[in-house]
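Task 17 of the worksheet. Students: predict the tertiary structure of the chain below and write it out as structure tokens. Keep your answer in the requested format; marks are given for formatting as well as content.
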Amino acid sequence: MRERILAAARTELTLVGPAALSMRAVAREVGVTVGALYRYFKNRDELLTELIVEAYESLGEAVDAGIAQVWEANGEARGTSGWVAAGLAARRWGTARPHEFLLLYGTPVIGYDAPQRTIGSASRVIVALVGIVVAAREAGFALPAGTYAVDTSDAALAEDFARIRAWLVEMGFAAAAPRVAVEDIFLTIRSWTELLGTISFEIAGHYRNSVESGRPYLEQVLRAQARALGLP
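Model answer:
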């Protein structure tokens, strides 16, 4: 029954979007009373949370599978090949499931406050990207000469980078964290944001009459990112 409810909720997402998702409409789609729905999800926010976690996990699995496929093919997944595969896998997932992608990265739902349980799933894509950068550094590939030097004289920004370095330890990169440069952190976050923004622009139609070659364009973006990061 939970799977039926979630399937119905995903259908409603395609029709009305997350902000207008209602328990009554989902119950009607499933063919049960609203009261029956509340036995499985206590309110709309709990249903939204389940959809969000499910979508983050599915996207993360797609990205991991893209990297693994390149690794199995040529053993170069920890360099540019893996980086490009990860980004293109995210695009394939997003263009195949646009309403779920926009649920994750589109306009926030007013009044909805994502609970702590979404954080781990939400981190899967950035963890995969960080893993590629860390592996490159451990293999001896450094940032290119002339890389922009990040100015951390602003106390708030320095605090952000310190928080991210602590997060690297939590995510299993404890050995590498002290050796990761501020520029690595900056460029990886910028690239992650650029990846999601590029996919979002394509899905939402913002590239119409300009960049309409979605996959080839994103591949060039990813290759430029990999070069900036000094990936092999």
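Marker's comment: DSSP finds eleven helices and no strands in the chain. The chain has a mean pLDDT of 93.
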